[in-house]
Amino acid sequence: MLFIQSLYLALIFFFIGMIGTIFVSKKYIPSLVSIFGIIGSIFLFLCSLGPIFYSHDIGFYLWDIFGKNKINIQIDHISGFFLIITSIITFCSSIFASNKIKHRSMKRPFGFLFFFLIISCILTLISYDVFLFLISWEIMSIAIYLIITIGEKERPGFIMLAIGEAGTIAILISFLLLSKNANSLDFSIIKMASGNISLSLRWWIFLLSFIGFGIKAGIIPLNFWLPRAYKACDGYIIPLVAGATLNLGIYGIIRTNMDLIPIHNLGPGIIVMITGAITAILGVLYATIEDDLKAVLAHSSIENAGIITTALGAGFVFFALNLREYAAMAFVACFYHIFNHSIFKTLLFMGQSEVEGEINTSSLDNMGGLLKKMPLLGTFVLVGVMSISALPPFNGFVSEWLTLETILRSVEITSSGIKLAFVFAGVLLALTAGLGVTCFVRVFAMGFLGMPRQENIKKAKDASKASIIPMAILSIFCLGLGVLPTYVIPSLDTVVARVTGARSQDVLVPPFFNNYKIKDSGHLPESFVKDFHDIGAQVGKSILPGRGLVIMHRGGAQNPVVFAASPAYTLITIVLLVGVTMFFVWLFCSRKHRAEQVSRWDGGIIKLYPEMTYTASGFSQPIRVIFNSILRPKMLEERKNIGGFQMKIKRQKVQAHLIDRLVLYPIINGPTWLSKKLAKMHSGEVTVYTGYVFLMLLVIIGLLWI
């Protein structure tokens, strides 16, 4: 009952906040966004705890539709997980947005759309019948469209809405097929009747749902809308859009293919895994060469959606092969990275919004030296950069490491073809991880270090408390999720175990803090566990609860190689090493020698100008050269005579995205080419048109004769 009341209160506070933005004075709208957003997100968090930690699903019917069908609302283990993420992102975004709205002239529509989007996301996640889900999905799409177009940027919003509607049609057809089979719109009845679905119909439902929801998730080939839409979003709400709405596409794929009609054959899993790996590599490749910071983060969202999808596909394959423990590992890696990506991407978009608002540019080539002017903001952006680069001890490392290690479990599969698919996905993910580090080293080094490349950077001020507080909260999450994975994994297991019937913590988190028992240890030999005890796996046992601080998997019969990691011990080691180093530097250097400040060596140059320093474009040039066959930039040349034999030549490289070239441009250019061909038929002569009419009559008579 407590959880249901919390859900009611969350929706009530968000709704009152939305309506309040219409009637209250403009000067009170920022406070209203902050107060009602924070309180509503707290109640939303509380109602999400029941299915995750107490195995207590929340559900109730509202009213009848179409006779025997009812509007059904339910929070189970899957929706509860996504609602926890949404509540955290909403909490932080409410504080951040309230500060940004203060400086906007259109406070009322901005505040209204902020709550409108939150409510639509919640309704999508708690809908448990086809009718309410599709209505909520459409409301969410309209909310994002209005958010984009409110800044007079109709084209990106129209592209997003158009391609989104195509995806909605695919989702609608897949749900209609499920509903027809179950003779009901209720998800619970659809789930019970899924065993009667034929193999061919399962394929159709999978393909339609994967394409439809994949569009919203940013998965290739129909993700060209995402960078355009993100760049058009206002800075006050882009953290919420990036941190919460992208998850809804992943949620739809999981809800349909993991819950309503679980995948039991290999084909769909391999398609999901390979598609995810290609999405990841293309996303990070374009993120690495982009100059605009917002575009970098948008392409990075595509990359992380690919990583999530790869882990999900691997889980589908293992599940179909009845390797339940490996399937549980893959799904835990998938859910872990969903959580991590929402946290660090929201943090980075907040940092980008603050930087753009302060120096009026988002171009990395025009930044530099921001860390000195904005030290607090720069510190939290650095946390986000290290997290998204998968560097320990931050959260991105754990989920990406788990994903790669799960893919290596393909050695237990006997089929060579399936192994080859895993090898292909693993290689692309490994390359993605390397490019990810390159991408965000470039972002921080070129944007926050070095010399200022614009005069207004020298006048920049650090972010206000209202912006720093949510960034600090998200940074704490980045560190906490990174150093305490042995506490996060058992929580995620409550979501995964209800699908797979197996628990990943039995093979991932040995009970080093508990008394050793064979049945609780993932079948690890006692002597094997003792060896890990001897090298410190039980350090902290006397002061910490739980199973331990080490993630470890021994492997299977085909490859009994141990992989183990402990971000907590890594953090302790880093702190000790830095502390010892600083102590000896102070002991042998600082105490005996006075520090002197001298000019840095600059190669003998009299003065170093910003134009002479390394730019973000220069940093990414090797990537452009290596991947030129994929990027294929187009050279535009403009020639202009300026007198005599002199000519002014201007050359400019234009980057056409691979997906645009292969998907978008053919869709656009095909009808254009056909219309040009048909236009030649219009000569303007009456005799020609008379001939057309006579020819059409002959065609009609011929058809009737047949």
Helices and strands in order:
Layout (H helix, E strand, L loop, with lengths): L1 H22 L5 H25 L4 E8 L3 E7 L1 H25 L5 H20 L3 H20 L4 H29 L4 H6 L6 H19 L7 H8 L5 H23 L5 H24 L3 H28 L3 H36 L10 H4 L1 H14 L6 H14 L7 H33 L16 H19 L1 H16 L4 H4 L17 H9 L16 E3 L9 E3 L1 H24 L25 H4 L1 H6 L1 H4 L2 E10 L2 E9 L3 H22 L6 H20 L1
Antiparallel strand pairs: 1-2, 3-4, 5-6
Helix pairs in contact: 1-2, 1-4, 2-3, 2-4, 3-4, 3-10, 3-13, 3-18, 4-5, 4-10, 5-6, 6-8, 6-9, 8-10, 9-12, 10-12, 10-13, 11-12, 11-17, 12-13, 12-16, 12-17, 13-15, 13-16, 13-18, 13-19, 15-17, 15-18, 16-17, 16-18
Describe this protein's structure:
The protein is mainly alpha-helical and 706 residues long. The protein has 27 helices and 6 strands. Strands 1-2 form a two-stranded antiparallel sheet. The model has no long low-confidence stretch (mean pLDDT 85). Helix 3 runs antiparallel to helix 4 and helix 13 (324-359) crosses helix 19 (485-500). Among the domains are: 263-505, no CATH class; 506-568, no CATH class; 659-705. It has helices at 2-23, 29-53, 77-101, 107-126, 130-149, 154-182, 187-192, 199-217, 225-232, 238-260, 266-289, 293-320, 324-359, 370-373, 375-388, 395-408, 416-448, 465-483, 485-500, 505-508, 526-534, 567-590, 616-619, 621-626, 628-631, 658-679, 686-705, and strands at residues 58-65, 69-75, 551-553, 563-565, 634-643, 646-654.
